[in-house]
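Project outcomes to date are best conveyed with an example. Our students and postdoctoral researchers have been running inverse folding experiments weekly, and each run begins with a structure described purely in tokens. The record below, which covers 216 residues, was selected by the lab manager from last quarter's runs and is presented without edits.
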């Protein structure tokens, strides 16, 4: 039994983070816990752990990693091209994950849609996560591409289509017409990624590197 944030820090990574918190707050199996006091203690432990990890990431960035990227010619980034490639890969990987996981998982196939696999469906934030990811990726893409107008227009189209969905948890994957609209958003994002990898990247002399979504 976990009674303190310090004890929770030793728990498996699979039981930590925002998704663990979502289960505790929104899943009936956990939100209606028989022991409310312990449930509250566990929620606090999860949130303290999330805050500690976020603070550590920010500190690592501000106190060292950012400087390595801004001034390449070090053991991490040997050149400006390597630093730019890292940022470019972050953009394309973000788009890939949104298309394949955030949208692809609930879409499944036409004969076997999987709405229960939508990210953050318990808290009703599946679509919101897509929108936030597009907004953040759009900002980074603008920096990497030098404010390329075609890239920005493609992001704007994807964001407008997402806004028009009005389907917070992608329940529409089971309905042919609603499914078509979700697939159209997925196609917009895939086209945007191709635009970046096939045209924008080469024009800048950079290419996406390996990412965590690549196979062995």
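After processing, the design step wrote out the following sequence:
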């Amino acid at each position: 039994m976990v009674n303190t944030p310090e004890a929770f820090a030793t728990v498996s990574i699979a039981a930590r983070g925002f998704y663990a918190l979502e289960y505790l707050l929104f899943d009936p199996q956990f939100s209606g816990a028989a022991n409310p006091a312990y449930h509250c203690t566990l929620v606090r432990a999860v949130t303290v752990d999330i805050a500690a990890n976020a603070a550590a990431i920010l500190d690592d960035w501000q106190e060292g990693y950012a400087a390595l990227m801004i001034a390449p010619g070090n053991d991490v980034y040997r050149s400006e091209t390597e630093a730019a490639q890292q940022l470019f890969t972050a953009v394309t990987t973000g788009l890939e994950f949104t298309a394949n996981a955030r949208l692809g998982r609930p879409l499944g196939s036409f004969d076997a849609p999987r709405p229960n696999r939508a990210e953050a469906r318990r808290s009703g934030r599946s679509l919101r996560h897509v929108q936030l990811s597009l907004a953040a990726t759009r900002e980074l893409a603008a920096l990497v591409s030098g404010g390329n107008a075609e890239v920005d227009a493609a992001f704007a189209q994807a964001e407008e289509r997402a806004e028009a969905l009005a389907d917070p948890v992608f329940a529409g994957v089971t309905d042919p017409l609603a499914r078509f609209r979700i697939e159209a958003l997925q196609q917009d994002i895939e086209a945007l990624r191709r635009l970046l990898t096939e045209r924008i990247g080469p024009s800048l002399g950079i290419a996406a590197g390996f990412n965590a979504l690549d196979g062995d």
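The chain has a mean pLDDT of 90. Residues 5-63 form one domain. The training component of this project remains on track.
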